[in-house]
Amino acid sequence: MSELQQRQIQLEVLRYNPETDTAPRYQTYSVPCLEEWVVLDALNYIKDHLDPTLSYRWSCHMAVCGSCGMMVNGEPKLACKAFIHEYKEGQIKVEPMANFPIERDLVTSVEDFITKLASVKPYLIPKEDKPVSAGEFKQTPAELKKFKQYTLCINCMLCYAACPQYALVPEFLGPAAISMAHRYNQDSRDGGRDQRQEVIASDEGVWECSFVGACSEVCPKHVDPAGALQQIKVASTIDWYKEHLMPWMKK
Amino acid sequence: MNSKPYVREVSKTTWFLSHPRYKRYMAREVTCIFIFAYTFLLIAALGALANGQEAFDAFVLGLGGPLGVLFNVVVLIATVYHSLSWFVVTPQAMPIQMGEEFVAGHIIVNAHYGAWAVVSLIILFWGM
Ligand code: SF4
Ligand code: FES
User: Fold this and answer.
1) Which ligand has its closest atom nearest to the C-alpha of A180?
2) Complex ipTM above 0.90?
3) CATH for A3-108, among 3.40.50.10470, 2.60.120.330, 3.10.20.30, 3.30.450.40?
4) What's the pLDDT score for residue B3?
5) CA of A217: which chain B residue's CA is closest?
6) Burial bucket for residue A42 (CB in 10 Å: 0-12, 13-18, 19+)
7) Is this structure's pTM higher than 0.90?
8) Structural domain boundaries, residue B84
9) Chain B positions with Cβ closer than 8 Å to A
């Protein structure tokens, strides 16, 4: 792997112009790709040299901002993390994230996810208010470990693009929003679980999930949203038994 | 702006054909039907038992025939597949934290295999 290898790749890109098109259509670009490139580099090449009208989102180019999610050969991927050398065929199909309406070309509307994320109160709700003078909220490494993994979510929405449940039932709160609720529920400094339960332990919440597990397979940050949802199911079931069979044991 | 986002329809009946991981999921879900069917066999066995020794013996004899064996083999394969597909995901649903660290996933999965083997052996020897 000494000198930079170059390969001509046919990029088949789904395009849609809301002003003129009634349906999306594919357009193929022939791009001289370096093997070290990621799909995002190829899109940038198109934008710079072949077709400035191509629209797509990106920002960090390092799998941190979460804005470059798209379907690469039918798989939800971050375009900045999908390496050209992993695609042996000379053709790569690039489409906007599945399960989201197409705004323009590879840009999708994300309002639905933003609303759902806000609905789970993804912030610390302290158990009791404490004046600043009372000092910091302390946490042990073990307590931190309980939720650390869920803080790695970059809101890229690839898990929604992979989730067939979300595709069939758009009301489903979905993997990332519920995992974020779990992140705060698991935080020893937080006291907001009861408030979040109303939203996440509902029919449109975890009970819409049938544990396909696709979300965890595609998550670029190994958040394992599917795991979070099952853990919430277990905890909610225990709540139910406590409430109905052992009312005296009220949490 | 004259924006009209385009919504791609998803087939309600054939969506799972679009990706191998969806087919795998469907295989896990569908194999539970065989377990469901087996529960009917057990109920039929209870019915035969209630009808006395003779009826029960005839029932057991029937099970030993080609159809009975075929049914049992098919159900066994489906059940093993179904159970294993759940075993492998147990670490996700029931993580165990000991001290600071979480117990490695393969230990939880192997514990399930172990428990399964023990229970199977007990039933086997208890039945003999
Ligand atoms: S859980 Fe993973 S796939 Fe889903 S939004 Fe967060 S980082 Fe992306
Ligand atoms: S460009 Fe930021 S995650 Fe890909």
Assistant:
1) 1
2) no
3) 3.10.20.30
4) 66
5) B21
6) buried
7) yes
8) 17-91
9) 2-8, 10, 12, 15-16, 18-19, 21-22, 25, 29, 89, 91-95, 97, 99-102
